Amino acid sequence: MNIESKVTSAMEGTTHTLKAGVNTSFAVFVKTLEELGGSWIFFMRIIRTFRKTSGYKEAIIQQIAEVSTRTIGTVIFAGIFVGAILVLQFDVMLRRFDAQTLLGGLNTSATIREIGPMIISFLLAGKIGAFTTAELANMRVTEQIDAVESLGVSPIQYLIIPRFFAIVFSSVVLLAIGLSVSVVGSILVAQSFSGMNMYQYISSIPRFAGAWTIFEGLVRSIIFSTIVANTSTYKGYTASGGARGVGKAVTEAAIYINVYIVVANFISSSLLEWIHDLVYWFISLAERFFF
Amino acid sequence: MGMGIFDRHLRTLYLAGYLMKRLVQQLAKGPHRKIEIMDQMEIIGIGSLPIITIATGFTGLVMTSEIAWHMDFALSNVSMIPGFTGQFVVRELGIAVPALLMVSKVGASLTAELASMRITEQLDAFKLLKIDVISYHIFPRWAACTVATVCLTLISIAITIIIAMLTAVTKYHFNSQEYFNTLAQFINSWDLVCAVTKSAIFGTVIPPIACAYAMKCEGGAQGVGQATTDAVVTCTLAVITLDFILTAIFSAVL
Amino acid sequence: MEHVNLGVPPCSSLAIIGPSGSGKSVLLKIIAGLITPTDGTVQVNSQKVSMLFQKNALFDSFTLLENLLIPLAETIGIRGEEATERSMKMLKAVGLDHAAKLYPDEISGGMQKRLGIARALIIEPEVILYDEPTAGLDPITSRSIADLMIELQNINKTTMVVVTNDLQRAYQVADQIAFCSNHTITAVGTPTEVKNTRDPILRKFIYSNALGAEL
Description:
Distance between the termini of chain C: 32 Å
Number of domains of chain C: 2
Strand content of chain B: under 5%
Oligomer: heterotrimer
Order of helices and strands of chain C: EHEHHHEHEHEEHH
CATH class of the largest domain in chain C: Alpha Beta
Helix content of chain C: 40-55%
């Protein structure tokens, strides 16, 4: 009797957990579709308004100044650590395969192309994304956005567009700075922790990280920055429900930005790989033609 | 940027430290609130499962083909792919990415929830009813977050390895049996201990920091937004810094 | 707040009235022990002090019933069937038993206020502090809340301190009224004494107060 009931309750527990998992997953799936649709419409609205109107330069520059000064310290801090972590990890692993000479190249390539943009973008999601969402959401629930509208000014023009473009621009620049700091930091960490000579480290870089690597890093930065800018302004603008609404908007912005970044990472990876193969196919074709 | 800003963050971190101390004490002696912990496990653990699986899946797809490509390109030696990929996933990627996602999902919602409670005077109500917020509200969430992070990290590692194997099988013509054999050679139980320890530490520091920012927030809706933002940023930086320290320790020891 | 010297006899009620920003809510929180005074002492001859907050401070992620079960379980230590029984009884007393499974954001302002009172009373306090209990309520609901406050005081023999700007309610529930102005208490008296006061500041407050106009 005892064993039977224990098995039954274990099975019930598992079923309950599975059901909960499926329900949650389904709810999340539906919610994500709603989110994506709303985000996309919002994005289109921003682009359309931007193309039809003008006079943003000053506002955008001011926002860029604000965003950058707030974030630069954190980005440098994170950049150093991200570079350091990767160096340590790769060093240990390469040591096992007796391929330590590759440390410089592998680390730099991985940092600039993949891991650097992703982790630093996670950070920007919080520092810039959450901040902007909090700012706009607060304006929304205290009816300041409605007030702006009642004065005959379009909130999209006045509030959203300067922030949007300032974030895209600043994030790309900040990511570039962060990645550079990462790479430089890695060199120093490699020297102190793994006893690798600086020149040895740098020598393996050109083989792995060339113009294409930087191009990839740049493309990813632009995509991730746009995600941060669009999602954070969208969640802030559509917040509702008082203080709890602000909290909810910021939380959701943080989560969605992170998830979008990961998915976009994959899509851009495949796309870039495809473009890379195409470009090099053309180049090899051209070489054969002209030689 | 000025010392004034750092001052605020340092004070909050000090509070976070105090909360951590109280939470550990409660773990040792106080009421264990198992039912509440179970409830929170469902909310935090199962609630984060979809996000972690999706994110891990996509990250895995990218990372594994990246590393495989590097191996192929650099060494023209594909036999090392299972070992290298597996190691990287178990030691770093499979741990850091879920942790950072937990920061945004769990960290942000804990802060937002507690901060709203603070500004609607619910925390004052608790105080007057002689109910200890740390014991009643924070402890179950802290315990659940720690356990959930460990579980989700292990699930995440499993998913990434499976995806890595599928990538290797389709792109580089590995045999799946072969793959697992090579993998087993390179990952030992110590790697798993490393993974569990790291994820446990990450999961454990998020709630105290999040709740500290919430308890120190002020000023209505804006305060809630500010506290949540600060909590997410500080937790992210904390995870990155701890990751570095733990990586350094584990590399030196191994 | 400065120079406050106030005493409240047991089983009586004190209303604190005064202009906004004069420190009434702060005084209440000091009495409750939520704010520590930098100087002076607060002596409350009771361990069981309860408070109704201005915005009710209801536990919004819990149902009405759970809002009562939590204090019973955590503050007094009563759980299970007995707790449910007591909670339902209290909900009935404030007229909310039909809404036991609803959440605070699903009920009206007046109902939220009633729940706030119910939660304050469920732990059977000896002293209750009310922070603007009728703020934002329509006159009819205000009156019924005040009736409820008096009824429950009579039944449970509690001491009440009420901060309010609603003069009519103050007259209705209070044995003594204190006038708080400029961060200090300037006058104390019975409702009749207050209505007939010679103090010019107090007179101005009472008779230009739209809610209590008695011209």
